[in-house]
Amino acid sequence: MSAPSLINFILKRPWLKRALTPVAAWWGNAAGYRQLGLRNDDLIPEESEIVQQALKRLPEKESYDRIFRIRRALQLSLQHQLLPKAEQTKPEEDYHYLSPIIRQIEVEIKERNDLDSLKVNKRK
Amino acid sequence: MISRSALGRNAQHALRRQCCAQPANRRGFAAAASGSTSFSYETSEVDSVKVASRDVAGPTTRLAVVAKAGTRYQPAPGLTTGLEYFAFKNTERRSGLRIVRESELLGGQLLAYHTREAVVLEAKFLREDLPYFTELLGEVISQTQYSTHEFNEEIEPTLHLRQHHHSAVVSELALDSAHSVAFHKGLGAPVFPSSATPLDKYMNEESIYAFSKSAYAKSNIAVVANGASQAELSKWVGQFFTEVPNTSAALSGGATKYYGGEERITNPHGNSLVIAFPGSSSFTAGTSYKPEIAVLAALLGGKSTIKWSPGFSLLSKAAAGFPGVSILASNLAYSDAGLFIIQFDGSAEAIRGASIEAVKALKNIATGSISKEDITKAVALAKYQALEAGQDIEAGLVSTGSGLVHGGKAFQIDEIGKSVQAVSGDKLKAVSKALLDGKVSVSAVGDLHVLPFAEDLGLNV
After folding, report:
1. Are B203 and B284 in the same domain?
2. Is A124 close to B97, i.e. CB distance below 8 A?
3. Spatial separation of the C-alpha atoms in residues A72 and A89, rounded to whole Å
4. How many other C-beta atoms are found inside a 10 Å radius of the C-beta of residue B392?
5. For B149, which of A57, A111, A115 is closest by C-beta distance?
6. Which residue would you say has higher pLDDT here, B377 or B4?
7. How far apart are CA B437 and CA B366, in angstroms?
8. CATH level 3 topology of A33-107
9. What's this model's pTM, rounded to 2 decimal places?
10. How far apart are CA A118 and CA A113, in angstroms?
11. Which keywords, in A-to-Z order, does the entry hold (chain A) (predicted)?
12. If you ran DSSP here, which 8-state letter would residue B309 be given?
């Protein structure tokens, strides 16, 4: 399941976007996951069928990298350490690699439900 | 509460709908329909897409896109099958699920299949839905996404099941083996990849996508319809097939050459023996069409035309002493070659005995010791079979489409009837002698300890 977000609301209003972009950048760094070498999409809880399905659809390389990042972060967390500055996730590396797939699966499920509860009007 | 006036209004509405809301052009079963009863196809070319139709009277239509992309033309194993399985999956405009549900709502049926020469995408529907399904087929061949997750989640597992199934059907295996022995490459490629084929190496969504670009190019497809007028079909094809790729790089498998030989495959699931000779190409090819072969197949027979009786054909007489064996003689016609096969299925011992008798029967034809009456019967049967095949809508669709994309003519059954009628006993004798003198392809699948070698049957490979 993708995390709830106001992104569409904000993107529709340019002034709001301009105002919030620096805040978002600050928040991204302050949240602390980048210091552990994670990406934002690594934080999506994976205990749901949709996310499990999305993980299966990841390309092999992405999937491998994701597991690597998570294991490294776990190790760092145990050792109470942060990654050296050079290895931390840079803002431009922190892109959405999983949530587009999740959204696609959600759309598929919604379409199926809509078609299942479809009301048929006979052609006149 | 529903008010009385509202109820009344609804009732009025319903009544009105029943009596007069139907459009004037809607046709019931009893009304005289437009369209000819002729079984010949009208052909034309719309925007460099070949279009053929015959306006058979009736409330339903069958529409097919026939692409010259069968296993014969695939650049690597499995691509044709992959292309077939990707039909009616997600496109740029709508999902595969929506395609299926929408056509269900219209009462249509969609199917995709392939032969050695063609990939066929077919839709069956009510006559008035022609625009919808023409658009759908145009969309499927030009805008399918060929996405990775569909390949991994749907195509590959289904294909593995199909391969698994194929490896247990000995008659299919024997036919494939006979083709590969007879033609090596091209027509010799198996219709379905066997379970031992290393598909991962060749087949993925990208290679299938690349293949689809040339397979579904405008010059490579024909749109064939049964039960639609040529004018209407041309109009919709002109409108909806604009995004079909226009590449000129045609797929070519090279000309077919007959080799002959023998192959024996051990298999625990049953027994099958195929004896194959160079046969007649399909009628649409023109020059290499030999009506004698069709008559020879009818004379040897196989499947009985009379229920609950083995029939009176030569092969059924040969099989009489060997209960449980089924023999079928037929000519598999392709665009530039053909394979005349005699196929035996049953227990290994019965196949052994029956095949020796069958070859004897063929030798009798070659020496001319066949009664005139038998030949007359065979000509009549062959003519009936050819005409029936032309009249049969499905066979007509595929053979017409293949004929058009291979640059030949449409399937015209009047001419076939004439050419079959002209076959004489002498011609039959000459043709069967030539078959026996030439190289034969023999494939045995099953219990190889019992199944005969070509040598045992007195055939030279």
Report:
1. no
2. no
3. 12
4. 12
5. A57
6. B377
7. 10
8. Cytochrome Bc1 Complex; Chain F (1.10.1090)
9. 0.84
10. 8
11. Electron transport, Membrane, Mitochondrion, Mitochondrion inner membrane, Respiratory chain, Transport
12. S
